[in-house]
Write the structure tokens for this entry.
Amino acid sequence: MRPGVLLAPELGVSQAAEERVRDYLVSSWQQSEAQGDAARVALYFGEGGAYDVSGLDDRANMLSDLREVVRLMNHGLQHLPAEVARH
């Protein structure tokens, strides 16, 4: 998995519902892993199993992606009161 694979412009500016953001994240991770092998997709999004070092690195990258999305959402929420006050 490539770090930062999910940084879509719409996540930074849209007011997508939590489920849409979750669906986007999972979909981007699944597409990225699907290019690798089916066993990884099953490991990450199925019943789970034993992880190797590469699998743990992938999970760390997924966590970084999630942190970035939360950071972007937080940034938007911090600016929301000022935008509401201006209108």
Q: What stands out?
A: The CA atoms of residues 57 and 63 lie 10 Å apart.
